[in-house]
Amino acid sequence: MAAACAAPSRANVDLDEAIAEAEARYCAAHPQSRAIFERNLEVMPGGNTRTVLFYHPFPLVIARGQGARLVDVDGHEYVDWLGEYSAGLYGHSHPVIVEAIRSALAEGIALGGPNRFEGALAAELCRRFPSLQLVRFCSSGTEANLFAISAARRYTGRPAVMVFEGAYHGGVFLFRRGEDAINAPFPWIVAPFNDREGTMALLEAHARELAAVIVEPVQGSAGAIAAEPSFLQALREACTRLGICLIFDEVMTSRASVGGMQARLGIVPDLTTLGKYLGGGLGLAAFGGKAPIMAQFDPRRPRAVPHAGTFNNAVLAMAAGLAGLTRVATAEALEALFARGEQLKARINARAAARRVAFCCTGSGSILALHCCRGPIRSERDLPPDAEREKLQRLLHFDLLERGHYIARRGYFTLALAHSEADEEALVEALDEFFALRRPFLAR
Ligand SMILES: Cc1ncc(COP(=O)(O)O)c(C=O)c1O
Questions:
Q1: Do 213 and 247 contact (CB within 8 A), yes or no?
Q2: Residue of the nearest CA to atom 13 in ligand 1?
Q3: Of 5, 13, 156, 328, which residue is 20 to 30 A from 89 by alpha carbon distance?
Q4: Alpha-carbon gap, residue 363 to 392, rounded angstroms
Q5: Which atom of ligand 1 is least distant from the CA of 275?
Q6: What is the mean pLDDT of the chain?
């Protein structure tokens, strides 16, 4: 794998030089990706249509994927650890998913009426997730959060929403440090993540304005930072007491068990949002929860809340999602995946400790991230400043790509059902090489 890439050769004396050297090798190895990027620059701002897929000097263009493997347009093969930011739970072209899509496809693509999959998928979700009494579908996680928040505002008659530092709930819900956000204009109360006292004080102070508290049980985009169970439990108790809707954004974490992170923790939110792998890799998301909140959307009711969306019941995505949930992402499969993710994290951290480098792997279950700094990381406040951090993360990214491991530049990665033990072993060894080679920078 990635045999075409040479191993780093120069001594590690200066970080900028090491990065420049790694970048030069990256450019030399990926002329086709670069050519496509340069053509795209003429018609798309930054040659890009999804910000998270851009990184300097240009991103790899992916030609195809199979199982846990990706191949770029220059012919390099990678273990796909990005897993489409967790939407790739099943791996690429899982036979069950492909068959479900083929068989639905034979009956048409967009039918313009209720289809035979939506009720079955809704029933499966309500069966699995403790908080789901009623559920509705939409096309993306962003949309699911938009509707969940709007439902809570309408239900409570209050305007404001509490969100946490470092949170990411979609393209118009960015709360990461230094982000120049184009957020939906709700009255936001931004609270400190995993800081029980600080959050409780804000909750009490704003109780009368707050419609909802929305939280990721594991902050994915901030760097796979898990919410502490006692923090989530405190949110649950305070929301119940103050009449505020608690929304768990389980767009990423729903894979933590058959009933998501909420079942694993034994904490039942009022509303839950889902997405990513829900459509088997096709675009599909959902929001749902307590019957009285969701019943607002019942179109038979006077003053029902409308919920539009051309692709809300997209046939192919629903067929793929239903097959994936019922035949592949079983309770046993998700339980085993969670345990494997925890073990992988522990192995990486043990290697970093043995090499005495400032490095840590964070996350929960199969949602993980690699950080070129010491742990523990309880919130984005524990991460080094972005400018400092970006350089080492860039070096890590180049070094792992060169060794055939595809992760996000910011270090995010996932374990998918398609990964083998050999893949895990290869990642641990590649990281061990990184620790040895880049020790002068990681020891600081
Ligand atoms: C926790 C969380 N919520 C919401 C979203 C938005 O989902 P989508 O990209 O489908 O709009 C994401 C996407 O990464 C996410 O990680």
A1: yes
A2: 170
A3: 5
A4: 19
A5: 10
A6: 96
219 Cβ inside 6 Å of ligand 1 = no
**pLDDT > 70 fraction of the chain, expressed in percent and rounded:** 97
Residue 250 beta carbon below 6 angstroms from any ligand 1 atom:
no
Backbone angles phi, psi at 360, to 5 degrees: -150, 150
139 ligand 1 Cβ < 6 A: no
Q: Which of the listed CATH numbers 3.30.365.10, 2.60.40.10, 3.90.1150.10, 3.90.1640.30 matches domain 15-92+341-442? A: 3.90.1150.10
Q: What's the CATH code, domain 95-328? A: 3.40.640.10
Task: Quote the pLDDT of residue 444.
Answer: 59
Pocket of ligand 1 contains residue 78 by CB under 6 Å: no
The upper half-sphere exposure of residue 242, i.e. CA atoms within 13 Å in the direction of its Cβ, equals 24
User: Is the pLDDT reported for residue 1 higher than 80?
Assistant: no
Q: For residue 194, which of 342, 356, 330, 377 has the smallest C-alpha distance?
A: 377
Q: Confirm or reject: Cβ of 254 under 6 Å from ligand 1.
A: no
**pLDDT attached to residue 10:** 53
Instruction: Answer yes or no: is the C-beta of 253 below 6 A from any ligand 1 atom.
Output: no
